[in-house]
Amino acid sequence: MSDGDDDWFESALEEDAKASAEADSTDTSAGSDTADPFGDDGEENPFGDDGEEDPFASDAESESPFEDDGSFDDDSPSPFEDDGAGGDDGGGLFGDDFATAFESAGSGGGGGGAAEFEDEDFDSDIPRIDIGIDGLDRMIQGGIPRRHLIVSIGSAGTGKTTFGLQFLHHGLENGENCVFITLEQSHSAIMDTANDREWGFDEYEANDQLAVIDLDPVEMANSLDNIRGELPGLIEDFDADRLVLDSVSLLEMMYDNPAKRRTEVFDFTRSLKNAGVTTMLTSEASEDNPYASRHGIIEYLTDAVFVLQYVRSETRETRLAVEIQKIRNANHSRETKPYEITMDGISVYQQANIF
Questions:
Q1: Where do the KaiC domain residues begin and end (predicted)?
Q2: Rounded to the nearest 10 degrees, how much is the dihedral formed by the CA atoms of 46, 48, 49, 54?
Q3: How far apart are CA 198 and CA 176, in angstroms?
């Protein structure tokens, strides 16, 4: 910096020193005459109030773009307000009625399952029936439409046969006629399984309310055209309301050609629908995907799909779990719920979580 420059910093220090010397020789009350480098010395203050409008001034009457104008105050309903799950005031976009409809319905919510459907009337002219498994029936709004085609998919040991037998037992208790066709076990084995649970299948069979038929899967495949043609008439003569085929996987395995397999299974399921009976099929799960059948066909031909599977936690604890994959013409929970197989049959814990 040159000597001729006006060094404002040094000038300010010299004035401050001069003012200090004068203050030593005068009364302290004269301090108001002291030159303040930041004081009002008559010169224009670049930051002073010069009468013009200050764009940064706080004017109580001016509107601030960030001012709290009541849009988000406590008395106004907030679109993100928790007024159902945790609050008592109500009035938010996600209020009790709306939030409850999605609570625990396939979103992984707390212990509720399909509680949102329990007290709600389902207006439908379609006749409906229950599966016969309490916790599972509560996950379905209004029941399964009558004459629907149902499939339960699961690996070995998940209770597919028990699922079908319990489905028939519920119908028998309500005076319905039922048919059980097994491709896996003998007639006596099926009867023993049901009678061990004291479901009275012997009595129902003696009263012509129940028919248990064991067929060889090879013979059934060879004579499927005849069976398909005769089945509707037999069901009508027996006046059957419910039918179980255990399992469709064995029938599918009889066909090596995928196109032939699809055609035969499609025609067979269509004949069951034409027979006017509510039918439950059981199917082995795919080895690669527990949510799909072994051949990936039957779930597309049926109206309702129940998936039975093993679920293992990080601690290696294993539980059985059921999920409703789809039901045509019916609302249902999409949560996965634990179940047990006991001497009373399958019990689904609709209010519980898996882990």
A1: 127-355
A2: 60
A3: 18
DSSP 202-261: HHHHHTTSEEEEE--HHHHHHTHHHHHHHHHHHHHHHT-SEEEEE-HHHHHTT--SHHHH
Alpha carbons 311 and 319: distance in angstroms, whole number: 5
d(CA 188, CA 190): 5
Using CA atoms, how far apart are residues 238 and 180, in angstroms rounded to an integer? Answer: 12
Distance CA 187, CA 181 (A): 9
With cut-offs at 50, 70 and 90, classify the pLDDT of residue 232.
confident
Q: How far apart are CA 2 and CA 5, in angstroms?
A: 6
Cα–Cα–Cα angle for 310, 315, 316, rounded to 5 degrees: 35
User: What are 231's two structure tokens?
Assistant: 């089945």
Residue-wise pLDDT tens digits, 173-213 = 999 999 999 999 999 999 999 999 999 999 999 999 999 99
- Please name the residues in contact with 220: beta carbons below 8 A apart, sequence gap of 6 or more: 183, 227, 251, 254
Q: What is the distance of C-alpha 276 from the center of its chain?
A: 31
- 306-344 pLDDT tens trace: 999 999 877 778 899 999 999 998 889 999 999 999 999
pLDDT band at residue 20, thresholds of 50, 70 and 90? low
- pTM of the prediction? 0.65
The two structure tokens encoding residue 208: 């012509």
- CA distances from residue 111 to 95, 237, 302 in whole angstroms, order as listed: 19, 46, 30
Phi, psi of 192 (to 5 degrees): -65, -40
Q: Hey, where are the domains in the chain?
A: 101-348
Cβ count near 167 (within 10 Å):
27
- Among the listed ranges 15-24, 100-109, 167-176, which one has the minimum average pLDDT value? 100-109
